[in-house]
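We now fix the convention by which a protein and its fold are recorded. The integers have meaning only within a learned vocabulary of local backbone shapes. A complete example follows; check for yourself that the lines match position by position.
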Amino acid sequence: MPKRPRTTARRRWRRFSSTAVVLIAVGAAAIALWLNRAEPTDSRPVAADPTGTRLPDIAGARADLERLTVAWNRNWESYERDAFGPGWSGRGGEAALADGCTARETVMKRDLTETRLAESNSCMVLSGTLNDPYAGERLSYDRFKASDIEIDHVVALGDAWRSGASQWSAQQRQRFANDIGNLLAVQKQANQDKGSKTPDQWKPREAFRCDYARRWVAVKARWDLTVQPTEKSALQDMLATCGPPVVR
């Protein structure tokens, strides 16, 4: 039997190699698409909101509350803190505002009085005093000592997850976690007692309930989160206590 020309064999080998390369590329693209189908990716850094959720007046808060969707919470069992981006561990990775300060640093500078900042880093609060809104205590802060002050998400990340954030992108959840309008410097024990409870489950001291409800409603309205029936009823009761607004 005569031998086949080498050129024909080479041609077939090249066709086979080209087809294999195309199939591998298509397969890799399909795998990448499958892996990323649930969570869109974006390599851009997430910046914290420079202003945060605005605190409405009493009439605005009441109107916003009536516009919120009432629904029972869902997906509570799948909540994980990491879904909202890096925490405030001090190891870096936290979102920063336009001035370079993190949301946590911005809130400390905003909520504490008699502050002393680091000379080499104007974002860093070395000491100060907090008039705690939740329990009404006056607390001293020293960066180099154990502190009774923590930063609270008024609408907790866990509650946000249960009331709509479980359907958000990773970037939207990270922006929410760094919304300084939803953050307050508060007494550590009060923050831990509150946890991720809603206003029907936990309330701050009576003198702060009006502002607390206004802030809670504003955050849920801005981020299009739902409220449970019992939560809405508690917020209506708290807004009924409102007198002249307290500016923070």
Q: What stands out?
A: The chain has two domains: 1-37, 58-239. The longest helix spans residues 6-35.
